[in-house]
Each structure stands twice: as structure tokens, then as C-alpha cells.
Write a structure and sequence with these properties.
Strand order of the largest sheet: 6-5-9-10-13-8-7-21
Number of helices: 4
Oligomer: single chain
Shape: elongated
Helix content: 10-25%
Protein name: Serine protease
Length: about 325
């Protein structure tokens, strides 16, 4: 490809409606590289050529080279829309227990008994991954918005206090029986005589899977929170799910994203902490639509009915729990 004055070419092409940029690239055909150098023209949205007026068409050749069109949407600076302080705080933004790096404010729900408004998210976001007996969290702990990783502090960022949670359990747990504890003590006494820096711990398999990862916190004031989900709007109610159903979520890290439900009734092992795993049963699987920090996001249908609570994911998939089970476990409602 010959030398190109890219700023000048940009000024020329940006006169075409929908064009936002230009650059050097490789021509792609149906997602496959042709290996041919091309002038790539960046557009907000890609339309079929047959739907465009002649003046809105990108030429097939630009500056003596073949052209290729890439859809990029509206490019903007990645600021603190979701990771900064918000008052009132809305679902879809940064939140977390004062010991937790960051998660997502999932939804504003109400206590079925008192009608009190409560902040909904995961146990591992609002309650520091506690099983209820490990000292990781307890009722009354400070909840920060923004979360610790995003600059929150207990001095200036408390949005609420942990009210209740469903305990989370690892795949392996310390034994309760006296025989196992006695065996552990004897082995460590023997090892201590030769290698005092080492210690053996006995574990037993936990046969009870986790069914939910959820917790609620009481806001410090009614006007400190709002119910409409960031970039989504108000939750319209609750809906059952089915395979192939389109879903979306509004999360602290990846914003507003969408996918489809790929599987239901899923039982799988999830890494809960470094080297610590838990088994979760009867969960829902969607395609990739989340990043670390999106945990706690409310998953919704296209028309804003709540269908699940996101708690885990990878680059290939997203896991969430049916929302009605979450609501019932915490005795809350929309």
C-alpha cells in the first residue's frame, strides 16, 4: 500500500454519513482474513449496501487500495460512569463489602416482611464470600459505593450495611468428627519434629452444592439509592427462562451487554477464590457477556423482566441463578 496521509483521508471520508474513522488493516470476507492490505473505514453501524443512499456508500477502493468497513459503534472515553461515586446509587454500578475489591449493585428490592428497600448483589460481593462461620463478614458490615478497588473508603463511601446473606460453601471443608481431628493433630505432631514449618490439614468433601450466591444490604438512607438499572431502566417484574432466550445485563465492568441462554439445570464447579472451589447446582448458562467485577449484575429479558443474578463467568460463558430462587432465599421481592 502506498503512503497515505491518514488525517487528510479521515477529513475526506468523515463527510460520508455514519463514518467515524479510518485506518490501515486487512480485508476481511465473512470473518476470514484475505491477507490483502486495505483501508479500513470505521462506521457507527454497518448497513447492507442496498439499504444505503448512493452518497452514504463507502467506495470499494479508497486512496488506491481496497476498502473494508468495520462497525465500531459510538467510541467514547472510558471514564468513571460505573466506577465513580453515585448518589443516588443505581443498579449496574460499582459496589462491595469493605474488604472486597469490587462487584456490581444488582437491583433494589424490598423486604417482604417490612417493605424496606434493600440492595441486592452476590454473597461474594456484599458478604466477602462467607459461609457464616469463618469471620469473613457479619451483619452490619459496611458496604461501599464505589467499592474499594474503585477508590471507595469506609470514611467517605458507605452506601449501606450488610443485612443478611445465604452462606457459601467450598467443595472441601474442615472435618467436624473427632477421629479426623485427632488424626490431623497426631500427623502434625510427628511432622513438627522434623519440619516445624509444615502443617497438614484434613479436609472432607462437601456433598451439599450451593444453590445461590446472594446477599442484601440496607442503604444508609432511602434517597441514597434508586431502582432504575443503569442504561436499562425500571425492572418490569420476574420471568421464567428457556433455552435460546435473549438476555442482557448492566454491570460495573463491561457495561450493558447481551447474549442468549445456552443451557439450564447446570451443575458445575466454580473457582470461588484462589485454589478454593465450590459446586453450584441448578444454574443457568449464557454466552460471554461479563468480566470480573460484573458479579452481582441483574440479568434481564429484552423487555426488562428480571430472570437471574449473575455470579460467575469466563471469556466463553456467563453463569447466573434463576432470580425467583434468589428472591425466595432472601425473602425479598421487586
Amino acid at each position: 500500500m502506498k503512503e497515505i496521509d491518514w488525517p487528510a483521508l479521515y477529513r475526506e471520508l468523515v463527510l460520508i454519513d455514519n463514518v467515524v474513522g479510518v485506518g490501515r488493516g486487512i480485508k476481511m470476507v465473512r470473518g476470514e482474513s484475505t491477507g490483502q492490505e486495505a483501508v479500513v473505514v470505521l462506521v457507527r453501524k454497518k448497513y447492507p449496501r442496498s439499504d444505503l443512499a448512493r452518497a452514504a456508500l463507502v467506495p470499494k477502493r479508497v486512496a488506491g487500495a481496497v476498502s473494508d468497513v468495520i462497525e465500531v459503534g459510538d467510541i467514547r472515553l472510558l471514564g468513571t460512569e460505573r466506577t465513580g461515586e453515585h448518589r443516588p446509587a443505581r443498579p449496574g454500578i460499582s459496589i462491595g463489602h469493605y474488604k472486597v475489591s469490587a462487584g456490581t449493585f444488582g437491583a433494589l428490592v424490598r423486604d417482604r416482611a417490612t417493605g424496606e428497600s434493600l440492595i441486592l448483589s452476590n454473597n461474594h460481593v456484599l458478604a466477602n464470600l462467607t459461609n457464616g462461620a469463618d469471620g469473613r463478614a457479619e451483619a452490619g458490615d459496611a458496604i461501599l459505593q464505589p467499592a474499594l478497588y474503585d477508590g471507595g473508603s469506609r470514611d467517605t463511601s458507605v452506601i449501606g450495611h450488610l443485612q443478611r446473606f445465604v452462606p457459601l460453601h467450598s467443595q472441601a471443608v474442615p472435618p467436624l468428627c473427632r477421629i479426623a481431628r485427632t488424626f490431623e493433630a497426631l500427623v502434625n505432631k510427628f511432622i513438627g519434629a522434623f519440619k516445624p514449618q509444615y502443617r497438614v490439614q484434613v479436609w472432607r468433601d462437601n456433598e451439599t452444592p450451593n444453590m445461590v450466591d446472594c446477599a442484601v444490604a440496607a442503604p444508609v438512607a432511602a434517597d441514597a439509592v434508586a431502582a432504575d438499572v443503569f442504561e436499562v431502566g425500571d425492572v418490569q417484574g420476574v420471568r421464567e427462562t428457556e433455552i435460546g432466550m435473549p438476555v442482557k445485563k448492566s454491570g460495573r465492568s463491561s457495561g450493558l451487554t447481551s447474549s442468549i441462554i445456552l443451557a439450564t439445570d447446570v451443575t458445575l464447579r466454580v473457582e470461588m477464590n484462589y485454589g478454593e472451589y465450590g459446586v453450584f447446582a441448578d444454574q443457568l448458562l449464557a454466552g460471554p457477556m461479563s468480566l470480573p467485577g460484573d458479579s452481582g449484575s441483574l440479568v434481564l429479558s429484552e423487555d426488562n423482566f428480571a430472570v437471574g443474578l449473575l455470579f460467575a463467568g469466563s471469556e466463553q460463558a456467563t453463569m447466573f441463578t434463576p432470580i425467583q430462587r434468589v428472591l425466595d432465599a432472601l425473602e425479598v421481592a421487586f
